[in-house]
Design goal:
Distance between the termini: 21 Å
CATH superfamily of the largest domain: ATPase, nucleotide binding domain
CATH architecture of the largest domain: 2-Layer Sandwich
Number of domains: 2
Radius of gyration: 21 Å
Shape: globular
Structural class: alpha/beta
Strand content: 15-25%
Number of strands: 10
Number of helices: 10
Order of helices and strands: EEEHEHEHEEEHHHHHEHEH
CATH class of the largest domain: Alpha Beta
Length: 349
């Protein structure tokens, strides 16, 4: 972490972070590297559709962004005029959702006459580990980051705050999709990933065996696993319509066990190839208890240094946007009003 800095008037640096990449509208305020407020508004409307509906998400962001930002400022106990800069998610994400956050950030920046800082969503997930929090340990460079979310699955070598190298990534579905789609096949409501984690705690992880996909190098594939689960359940429910209900815990545990093993196999290979045994997890799926346990077991058995974020910094949040804004502020990396949101945004940019 760079040394703390003051602005040109020798005052504390206050960064407003805004996150609107998907279906959560979030705002946070950071003071000199420490989060002093962090607000998130969820959109329950998507549950009835079994997934996020982009048009509904962007409309909800328009309704939520003003009250969420206002709540973040009030909770921080500051006035908007105290802000040093505004950081926001520029991509990747749903274009309509991103547009709301980008437009709001630009307008507020222009009105206050303060810098604008665009932030890469997935880099923010990784750099959330640098939020100054007594409950979290800051990783030393270089380290490997396993970014796991509904839209991403990557192993990233992080050599500095701004130097990222993707070593492997999913060729099809992300790990979050694998969890949610498996849950949907079993009749669970959206989002189903956390429910699989919940039921898995009561089941036998070796009750049912699912074949792990064979993918060269450090890349991942989860579409085949999803298909295998679908065909297996179709066959079983044909003979016993209550098969899923009767075996829900064991099915959840077996699916989670398979997915976690896929992730850990690739991580072990990455450690072997790079010689780096500092591992940080990032993204919404890093809240999964099976993944956390597997990493802690590796720390004990393999001598890895494992860095696990607080739950509030795993799912989409504005605190992670604010910390990247702070790091870029110290480095003099600012954006201008010509910036446009990007639905797709490679990590190397």
């Amino acid at each position: 972490m760079p040394e703390k800095a003051k602005d040109k008037n020798n005052k504390s640096i206050y960064i407003l972070g805004i996150e609107s990449s998907c279906d959560d509208t979030a705002a946070a305020v950071l003071k000199d590297g420490k989060i002093i407020s962090n607000k998130v508004t969820n959109q329950a409307i998507h549950e009835q559709y079994g997934g996020v509906v982009p048009e509904l998400a962007s409309r909800a962001h328009q309704q939520n962004i003003v009250p969420v930002v206002d709540a973040a400022l009030k909770d921080a106990g500051i006035d908007k005029k105290d802000l040093s800069a505004i950081a926001f998610t520029e991509g990747p994400g749903l274009l309509g959702s991103l547009l709301v956050g980008v437009s709001f950030a630009k307008s507020m920046s222009l009105a206050l006459g303060i810098p604008l800082i665009g932030v890469h969503h997935m880099k923010a997930h990784i750099l959330a580990h640098f939020i100054q929090d007594n409950e979290m340990q800051l990783p030393e460079f270089p380290f490997l980051a396993l970014t796991i979310s509904g839209g991403h699955t990557q192993i990233v070598q992080v050599d500095s705050h701004f130097d990222f190298k993707v070593l492997g990534e999913t060729l099809d579905d992300a790990v979050g999709e694998a969890f949610d789609k498996s849950a949907k096949i079993m009749g669970m409501p959206y989002p189903g990933g956390p429910l699989i984690d919940k039921y898995a705690a009561e089941g036998n992880p070796k009750a049912f065996k699912f074949t792990k996909p064979r993918v060269d190098g450090l890349n991942f594939s989860f579409s085949g696993l999803k298909t295998a689960i679908l065909y297996f359940l179709q066959k079983q429910t044909k003979d016993n319509p209550d098969f899923i209900k009767d075996n829900l815990a064991d099915l959840s545990a077996s699916i989670q066990y398979t997915i976690v093993n896929i992730l850990m196999d690739k991580l072990k290979k990455a450690v072997e190839q790079t010689g780096i045994n500092r591992i940080a997890i990032a993204g919404g799926v890093s809240a999964n208890s099976g993944i956390r346990k597997a990493l802690l077991d590796a720390q004990e058995q393999l001598g890895w240094q494992v860095f696990i974020p607080k739950f509030e910094y795993t799912t989409d949040n504005a605190a992670m946007i604010a910390i990247v804004g702070y790091l870029k502020y110290l480095d003099g990396q600012f954006s201008d009003l010509s910036l446009v949101p990007k639905a797709r945004m490679p990590l190397k940019t």
